[in-house]
Amino acid sequence: MNEFSLINKYFAESSFVRKDVIIGIGDDAAITQVPQNQSLATTTDTLLKGVHFLANTSPQDIAHKAIAVNLSDLAAMGAEPSWLSLSLTMPDADEVWLQGFSEKVAELTEYFSVQLIGGDTVKGPLSITITAQGFVPQDSVLTRDGAKNGDWIFVTGTLGDAGAGLDILRNKLTGDDASASDYLVARHRRPTPRVLAGTVLRRLASACIDVSDGLLQDVMHIAKASGTGVILHVDRLPISDALRSYVKDLHQAFGYAASAGDDYELLFTVPEEHRNTVQTALDSYSIMHTCIGQMTGAIGKLDLKLNEKPYTLYDCERVGYSHF
Amino acid sequence: MNEFSLINKYFAESSFVRKDVIIGIGDDAAITQVPQNQSLATTTDTLLKGVHFLANTSPQDIAHKAIAVNLSDLAAMGAEPSWLSLSLTMPDADEVWLQGFSEKVAELTEYFSVQLIGGDTVKGPLSITITAQGFVPQDSVLTRDGAKNGDWIFVTGTLGDAGAGLDILRNKLTGDDASASDYLVARHRRPTPRVLAGTVLRRLASACIDVSDGLLQDVMHIAKASGTGVILHVDRLPISDALRSYVKDLHQAFGYAASAGDDYELLFTVPEEHRNTVQTALDSYSIMHTCIGQMTGAIGKLDLKLNEKPYTLYDCERVGYSHF
């Protein structure tokens, strides 16, 4: 099967259809319409077998993660996703794999109301690059550089689940609680991009980022971009019941929550005058959120506290992921 | 070196800067502004070592080709390029390679007035995915599906050079003319996207595509999308002096011109009533163009002619490239 029939068979008709797509898959480029008074948000992420997912990961879970990590980047800017482009490198035209992958793409494009508008297929080591586009009003963009001394640090959802899930899959973490294990592995394999939370935070959060590299690295991205420091209260980090049950040692749970990455929760800062509004708005959408610390004037400095006392992490070496 | 310092060191400040980029490299997504009354054109292409370029290709030539093939797709829609996103998978953080690659990116973004707005870096087999974005007025988009019976078929530049250049590099084609060899290899390594030609053809061409898969495959993409057939006059295919000199046998030159692909010239169809206008407009910009045939009513049928008589190609097996 050649690449044209591949694209046509599995992708051309498997996507949600939007009215703002004038030309989708099938020409040299897609043609789309950005609404007036909206800026365009664009992000690209590549997932490579053995680096971003284990070799035995299902095509459904690979599709889920590839889409989720890109939508998460848009969410962190406060943008509403609209279109996806997919470049798929795969060793052979495995129809079972393509069936599973494209069904998940269809399901998620429908769920998030985004359209697959184009892409490329190449023969080679399994790798997926997605470019996601979306809209955000220009005066509502969430960035990393707006945090001020005294702003409160919040995070959506719970932290550390994905890292624990990955360690379970790698046999680096073992335990008895099968349902907790399933939950943690699912959080690793099928992260939830916080798209709605991102739009709710527009004009309220002073800075925002998604937790992909790990909380400590990501909070320091905000601090460095904003010219501030950070106090984090480790005892306030939101830990899921599953993680607490599975790892037993609470300090190990704190280690996962602080450093493991891949949670794709939103980490954001809020000025005192918006604190109540943010909490009320997120509550009204039932979006879990936790205040975990505060920005400081100590530029570039990270203070970890446990019950108000200085704290050193259980696993200090594990501070995020570096490719090179 | 970690991926953040890689991106910052080599790419964050190496690109042309545009006023319509509100946030470029360095946040979770880029934020840009599409002009009012313009549609957005988006295309993605992946180049993989060993598939799209030979293992010994210089980083400069890889950067050139990765950018050119994407801008060529925009040109084929009549779009003016604006922004690039780059996902770079490489086996290690080779600083000499990155220096060469990023210098060429900087040079070409300047030349085409496009800004690098984001991307990703991953450790793995050398592969480059670029997403290019641009603008085109909605009523001026060039597509594949507008050709009508009787429309004239034109192509910019010369055909077959890139294919001959690749065969020279692979030692499948040999000859004495060193300067012709250099020219053909350069045409393979550093194709020219016909961006200006694409904008000139807006509202004049009835259909357009770039010659990437090979003339015969690409003209049939237009024919199938438009519901027409094709007559091509092989004796009218534009052959460069270098190709004619190097291959000696004119029929072999026709074979390269018809089938070899990777020329990235624009192939387009023109209704009789626009024929003079198109030729005058392209002449006024010194854009070489040649009428090579005509669309017919014989849906899906391709007739090759040599001096008005039916013709069979020198190398009929070589009809474009298929990945799977």
TrEMBL record, chains A, B:
Substrates-to-products reaction catalysed: thiamine phosphate + ATP = thiamine diphosphate + ADP
Domain annotation PurM-like C-terminal: ranges: 149-297
Matches recorded under Pfam families: AIRS, AIRS_C
UniProt binding sites for Mg(2+) 2: D45, D73
Domain of life, source organism: Bacteria
UniProt: Mg(2+) 4 binding residues: D28, T43, D73
Positions annotated to bind Mg(2+) 5: D213
Name assigned to this protein: Thiamine-monophosphate kinase
The gene coding this protein: thiL
Keywords, comma-separated and alphabetical: ATP-binding, Kinase, Magnesium, Metal-binding, Nucleotide-binding, Thiamine biosynthesis, Transferase
Note: Reaction mechanism of ThiL seems to utilize a direct, inline transfer of the gamma-phosphate of ATP to TMP rather than a phosphorylated enzyme intermediate.
Binding site for ATP: G119, D120, R144, S212
